[in-house]
Design a protein that fits this description.
Strands 3, 7, 8, 9, 10, 13, 16, 17 and 18 form a nine-stranded mixed beta sheet that branches. A three-stranded antiparallel beta sheet has the order 4-5-6, with helices on one face. Strands 1-2 form a two-stranded antiparallel sheet. It contains 21 helices and 22 strands. It is an alpha/beta fold and 845 residues long. It starts with 13 loop residues before the first helix and ends with a helix. The chain is elongated and about 165 Å long. It binds adenosine-5'-triphosphate (ATP). Adenosine-5'-triphosphate (ATP) binds next to helix 8 and strand 15.
Length: 845
């Protein structure tokens, strides 16, 4: 904005300015100018207000840097009565600064709002982007870990590195030659030049020559160390002859740090890198196995150090040393301090082979606890860093006294280590871990599901050739061990929780399996029941159909029978005229035995007229018949057929002593007309058919009777039960004029699986006037000798299964009921047949 444009702006009151659009525009111009070009001095430094304002976009945009100060300055200027430091505005007469600043303030507030909104938006975007990246990073880390461990496993969970120290000055001075040869191209092989100049080749996972420095050695060790950080149990140990550099490799010197220090350094640095995802905690213990005793190297005083420590197996299977000092470490300096302290307490002594020879196995245990912040997974693993005592021949190092004893213990424990290695290599089911304190301590980190790295330390000197060969042979055996895949170690508390959950899950699965099995069995049962039900339904339908047919047939036969009866009756009436005159009824009834058709009992006198019972006493000879429950003579039980008792006077037979085979009032066949005979035959056929139908009925009822009880039996309720059907037919039969009603206690009941048809006890007492009196007497004239009594016994047709006998029953009413007589099989058929003949006879009568 050119300077001249502002000149001439006249001072106006605030109200005027507010109301006048021109004035507002002018003030806006001033404000914009202040922001665009204004340069105000505050505390000696320039406060700049920049804007990218353009004609198209009058809204000031861009950074807000300096604006609060500018505004503050302007407001201050206002309060100080318009002291404007701007050289441009100085020239303006009296601009309405208040209005200008108000506008400026409004714009500023708007800008601040926009700024805040934009910032929040950016924050949100950044946040989500950050979360995505974090997730990706976590996934990548896990993938890296997985691949890395796979690589380690492919290389083998027991790895053997060989390290050869340089010839020392003493050896050189003595003129010992170098017997170990390395090929710079083959990093995994070395050759031993034997005494006979032959070469023996050894192969390991990595071979380090005398020139290899600590960094190079640790670079190959690093993957195993990282596995410990990932939650695997790790054991790194150095084995070899005295003075070959075991302590040098594991501990190192302040100038050349060894594996222990470097490993912990890496643990700290890597844990720091992973701190956003995983929280780590480290603790260090240091102990030695000296003369088969465990000594805590971090104990504060000698008393503690002298305390006997034992190895115990914890509930989660790991081996712990209760009472062992475990120092939490947070920095590498703390670790170094601890290692230095422990190293000081270590048992060392001078031998001919090494001035500061380690007389014990030194073990540093690093416990690594981790918690994954993303997944919440916890782990707890151990890393053992072991510097073994020197494996040397006692004779060679020329020791005696205490040193000799130490050497014996050292050799014993190394021998135990060799045995463990051999057992692992040969996959022996029993691994002798407990043969020494050393192997017992390392049990959870030797073999099994951990990662093991062994440094076999050798001397290049020709003087140590034998020891070197022994060490290399031992290392070769170790390398031959095939271990299964390593397993990640979880936190014991977490393990316990997981174990509980697993157990619960196992029980639930078991219960589930049981329920499923039950369900399956029930389903099978249900299916089979369904099949049975369907079969039964079909049977019921068939039976119903058969019953309907039977009923129909019964009706037909009844009709036919009635017609036949009528015909027979007519014939009988016609033939009466040619019948001979019957004898008048005798005053005294002849003895029953004379008129029955039963054979006289053997060895028993026949009842005489004097022993017979008179009609006035008992017309049916009840004492004789009812003397046993089956209506049989107790002295003649062999006779079981129903008998027909007729009390009609004998026709033409006056001699009561002559037994009659058959007593009938019917005419002899010769006297009867052929029509009657035909009718009788016809009648007999019909009776036979009727009998067959009764059999059919029995079968149909038997079908019902065999219906087993099923859970679906309720479905029968709406159907006709066999009893109902049987009852229906029975009632139909009974309603017929031919049959008398059943006694109430003889109603057949529904008996499952008992194919029994119990016919209604039928007792019919018919009073038939004798032909002589038929014309003159009334049939209802009472039971006199003029009437013939026909007693039909109740006949039960039962299955061959013997039923318990029933007590004889006496019916009320005109007739006398002799109790049921049970028959089965052919006997029943005969009875039915006899009954049919009797009926026929009665009808003829
Ligand atoms: N690779 C090496 N480079 C340089 N010097 C070494 C190397 N290895 C071992 N030495 C030196 O050899 C000497 C003996 O080493 P060290 O004490 O580590 O042997 P050692 O196997 O631990 O013996 P001991 O079993 O008796 O404890 C030390 O002075 C050490 O500095």
């Amino acid at each position: 904005m050119p300077e001249g444009d502002l000149v001439g702006i006249t001072a106006q009151s605030e109200q005027e300015c507010e109301s006048s659009p021109n004035c507002k525009d002018q003030n806006l111009q001033i404000a914009q100018y202040i922001l665009l070009e204004g340069s105000f001095t505050e505390n000696g430094s320039d406060v700049e207000a920049r804007t990218t304002d353009t004609a198209d976009n009058p809204e000031p945009a861009g950074t807000m840097e300096g604006r609060p100060e500018t505004l503050g300055y302007l407001i201050q200027a206002l309060d100080d009565d318009c002291i404007i430091g701007s050289p441009v505005l100085k020239g303006v007469a009296t601009p309405n600064l208040r209005a200008s600043i108000n506008l400026l303030g409004t714009k500023y507030n708007n800008l601040i709002e926009r700024y805040k909104t934009e910032t929040n938006k950016c924050k949100d975007e950044r946040g989500s982007r950050y979360e995505t990246l974090k997730k990706q990073y976590t996934n990548e880390c896990q993938e890296r870990k997985r691949l890395y461990n796979e690589l380690i496993e492919l290389r083998g969970n027991i790895r053997v590195f060989c390290r050869c120290r340089p010839l020392n000055s003493d050896e050189i001075s003595k003129g010992y030659s170098n017997v170990v040869e390395f090929d710079s191209l083959l990093e995994t092989e070395l050759q031993i030049i034997c005494n006979d100049s032959s070469r023996k080749q050894f192969k390991f996972d990595q071979v380090f020559g005398p020139s290899a420095n600590q960094e190079a050695v640790f670079a190959e060790t690093l993957p195993v160390v990282m596995s410990a950080l990932d939650g695997y149990n790790v054991c790194i140990f150095a084995y070899g002859q005295t003075g070959t550099g075991k302590t040098f490799t594991m501990e190192g010197t302040p100038e050349n740090r060894g594996v222990n220090y470097r490993a912990l350094e890496v643990l700290f640095s890597s844990s720091a890198k992973r701190s956003s995802n995983v929280a780590y905690g480290f603790s260090v213990s240091m102990l030695e196995v000296y003369n088969e005793r465990i000594r805590d190297l971090l104990a504060e005083n000698n008393d503690q150090m002298a305390k006997k420590l034992e190895i115990k197996q914890s509930s989660d299977g790991t081996h712990e040393v209760p009472g062992l000092v475990e120092s939490d470490v947070h920095t590498i300096d703390e670790v170094w301090e601890i290692l230095r302290t422990g190293g000081k307490n270590r048992s060392v002594g001078s031998t001919s082979a090494n001035e500061l020879s380690s007389r014990s196995h030194c073990l540093v245990r690093v416990t690594i606890k981790s918690k994954n912040l993303v997944s919440g997974q916890r782990s707890r693993s151990h890393m053992w860093l072991v510097d073994l005592a020197g494996s040397e021949r006692v004779s060679k190092i020329d020791v005696e006294g205490e040193r000799l004893r130490e050497s014996q213990f050292i050799n014993k424990s190394l021998s135990a280590l060799g045995d463990v290695i051999s057992a692992l290599a040969s996959k022996n089911p029993h691994i002798p871990y407990r043969n020494s304190k050393l192997t017992h301590l390392l049990q959870s980190s030797l073999g099994g599901d951990c990662k093991t790295l062994m440094f076999v330390q050798i001397s290049p000197s020709s003087a140590d050739l034998g020891e070197t060969t022994c060490s290399l042979n031992f290392a070769t055996r170790v390398r031959g061990i095939e271990q299964g895949p390593a397993r990640k170690q979880t936190d014991p508390a977490e393990s316990f929780k997981l174990k509980q959950m697993t157990e619960k899950l196992r029980l639930e699965e078991k219960e589930n399996a049981r329920l499923n099995e039950n369900l399956r069995l029930l389903n099978m049962k249900y299916t089979s029941r369904e099949n049975v039900f369907q079969t039964l339904q079909e049977k019921v339908k068939e039976a119903e159909q058969a019953s309907r047919n039977y009923l129909q047939r019964v009706r037909e036969l009844e009709n036919q029978l009635a017609a036949e009866k009528r015909v027979v009756k007519d014939n009988t009436t016609t033939s009466q005229f040619i019948k001979p005159q019957l004898m008048p009824p005798q005053k005294q009834r002849p003895p029953l035995a004379r008129i029955t058709n039963r054979a006289p009992p053997i060895g028993r006198p026949r009842p005489t007229a004097t022993t017979s019972v008179t009609l006035s006493q008992n017309k049916e000879n009840i004492p004789l018949v009812a003397s046993n429950s089956f209506g049989l003579n107790p002295h003649n039980r062999g006779i079981s057929k129903a008998r027909r008792v007729s009390v009609a006077p004998l026709l033409g037979h006056n001699n009561p002593s002559q037994a009659k085979r058959r007593t009938s009032l019917a005419m002899p066949p010769s006297m009867r007309d052929p029509q009657t005979i035909m009718a009788e035959r016809k009648f007999s056929q019909l009776e036979q058919q009727f009998s067959q139908l009764q059999n059919l009925k029995r079968r149909s009822v038997a079908v019902f009777n065999t219906v087993p009880a099923t859970p679906l039996a309720g479905t029968y309720s709406s159907r006709k039960t066999p009893d109902a059907i049987g009852g229906k037919y029975r009632s139909l039969l009974m309603s017929s004029s031919k049959y008398a009603p059943s006694p109430p206690n003889a109603v057949s009941t529904w008996r499952a699986r008992l194919p029994t048809v119990v016919g209604s006890p039928r007792q019919r007492v018919r009073l038939v006037p004798s032909p002589a009196n038929r014309s003159g007497s009334t049939p209802e004239g009472g039971m006199s000798s003029k009437y013939c009594f026909s007693v039909q016994k109740r006949v039960q047709i039962a299955s061959p299964i013997q039923q318990p006998p029933r007590a004889p029953q006496v019916l009320t009413g005109a007739g006398v009921y002799n109790g049921p007589t049970r028959f089965a099989g052919n006997q029943a058929k005969r009875v039915l047949c006899n009954n049919a003949i009797a009926k026929r006879r009665m009808s003829v009568l």
